[in-house]
Amino acid sequence: MLTPEEFKIKADSLISDNILDRLQPITRAIIERDNFVCDVHCHFFDVKTVNIKYFLKRTIRQKLGLENANENLNYLNLGEEEYDIDALTNQEFDDEAQWKAFEDEIVFVENRKKEIADERGLESFSDAFKSSKILRLKNPKEVYDFYLDNFSLNQYDAFGFDKKDLLVTVLPMDMETGWQVKLRKPLKEQMAELKEICKEVPMIPYFPAHPARTDLYEYFLEAFDPATSFFGVKIYPGLGYLPSDHRLYPIYEICEKKGIPVLTHCGGEAVTQNKKKINVFRRKEEVQVEGERIVQVSQQCNEPEEWSFVLADFPNLKLNLGHFGGVGAWEKIRDGKESERINDIEALMQKYPNVYADFSFNVIETSIFDAFKDALDKKPIFSERALFGSDFWVVCPNGNLKKAQETFFNKMGDHLDALVYRNIRNYLVG
To answer: Is 174 within a domain?
Structure first.
């Protein structure tokens, strides 16, 4: 394995100082034409890149509560308590037979969805199962095509987006390390597949960096091979680490030097690590994070304030705080209350020149649009640094994404061009 110093030497020589060199020709041409719109926060998971546990935690289990719906349901009848799902972590991986049984349950429930919805008053039942359809697509290109046909910016001709090029940032997730599971499509295979797809469609791929991965630096160098380079770095602290973990510092150093954008999860805690007490690193100091519930531990790791340690050491790092604090933070603003997360994000933006925040996932919650628009109107730093992202496909179970996005675009008025183009351009290649 490479030492941090060996890694930095190799990365420095491998990665071009020209940001555009990290883009495949089809994407670079769009940037150079400079007539595009961009969704800066997307996921194109397919049936082999997530496991059953992820699907249950993030989608079905969260929305349906079918614990007593039918005695034949072994997965979809799990209750709401976190421990109910822990049994799945004991499996080394989800094999084909398990997935077949899981999909059979989905089909069974889909066939009874009207009956179950009537019984249980589940208004969002059909929305939850949109992800079950997506999940059964075979590869990220099929998922991308589904997104393109149903939810992409190009679908909104009322705003002229259909007349512009479309760019999409794609964000894999290192669940192998974060959850210590084996996937049917390992991360190395996912990366290779994305490299091939990016030759054909204008995707901007991000490398998922988890500090506990033993071959993290080797993976990074493979991802940023100049022939088929990734473009940015994805950080997901809620999977059990702090962003200032010293093992990530060599990567931040290269990112700052080469203008590689970083995107971090900074919102809700629907996807978490699995313990109520964890030991993590803040820089090189080992600290303990604990809570009464698992989600509280991940919430602490996701706090924007934790990035103050990183930015103090890398003040010119290009950083996108994904989800802009999350729906809950903006609900506080909507209700006339203070949000510590929003205040911390604003403080980081004021202090550091390259800190941005995308509104992804939040675009499904129409009740907070006025609060966000008001913040853009009153705070120039927000209007200059806010980005549009959908959080497809993660957001799909939570409502009608196509309709919600249209409402969002109508609401944003004069800020719309900055959200879908100007600010994103500055973040990516400015």
So the answer is: no
